[in-house]
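Z., the sequence and structure:
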Amino acid sequence: METLRELSEVIHGPIRELPAALSRLLAPGAGHRALTILAADVDGGHRRGAGESSVLDQVPYLDLVEMRRRMSPGTVRRDTMVAEGAAEEVLLALSRNGALLALAGPTCDAEGERAVLDLWNIVSLRVQRLADTAPPSWLRLARMSAGERMEALAELADEYSTTLETVLAALRSRALDDAAARTTATGIAAAGLVHLRTVSDRVRTVAEEPVTTAFERLRDDLGPLVRYREIDMQFVEPPLDGRPLPSEVAHGARAVVRGTILAMLDDPEVGRVRVQWDCDGKNLLIDMRDDGEGGLSRESIQYQLVEDRIQALRGRIALDATPGWGTDLSIVIPLDPPHAPAGLSADWALGAREQEILVRVAAGLRNREIAAELTISENTVKFHLANVYRKLGVSSRAEATALYFAQARQDEPAAR
């Protein structure tokens, strides 16, 4: 009973306290030096942890993601990570919804490992629910951050590729006499090119999810929604060679479909729902149909929630609800992330740090959260924010946010 009470506290407590509370819950049966959580859907590598920060904070995010990719949902296993130059044994538990829990220095037997997985399967549902109910601004920020991240990566790759290719051309020149030096330097430069391209591919792989995998996860997520209702769920698989989805698009699309299914199931006459995903190379295409009374309207709260999420992803939605004939929803979500609104710097003369802060203010983050993300002090955030207000001619966060999104709508085609 004590374990159940503590589990309830973990599930219902604030999300920022979840890692520490989970660590305390697991400690009696599965001791550990540190704990870290990698959610199923992430926005650029953010993770949470508890315990000795020097342990898992040193483990590269990409290594955690690769370990997760080698596991099957609902499994647990031990592995070794390198933290601070030393090997560290870790216990990895991958929940059924794809969230990873890593315990550094575990002190439990096989029975304890199974208990860790069982508890994590429950707690990870809380993590997923928080992501599902996040405001649309979270998706908007994730999309913009992804665009900036990939643009910076491409520029870095181009710069270093050009440099290294120039080095290779010079070293291969017949004008150089020292063949041994040329051969050695050529080998080093070639290895550098290979490494750079490998890192580039690795980052892109982490930021994307195969469309078939994303759809399979959707099918698993919908299971509990229809378990206690006699309904015929029909799934039309996306093409096997479909373009991979950016992680925030995969997450947002699943949340949209789950929300739409719940809205459709409010109609007691619905007995069949058809979900189809497709990909045209530039967009994720979602089609959903039911055989109900066609009562879902554009003015309903359920529809507005779905529409807000789709607009946050820069997508568009079409609703065809005919009384007595059911509901048909067609959704288009672009796969390429947007750039930050091009007019910000030119029109308002914001510096790079001021733009970073404005984007996060518009996403609803408080000063403390912005400081943590940018690794600066709260006083520095306040200083830059005061400059942002002055340059925009506003006096509050609400006014700055409204002006920011008004500018964004001018710079991009309407989402509707």
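The CA atoms of residues 394 and 400 lie 6 Å apart. The first strand starts at residue 34 and ends at 38.

Let me know what you think.
H.
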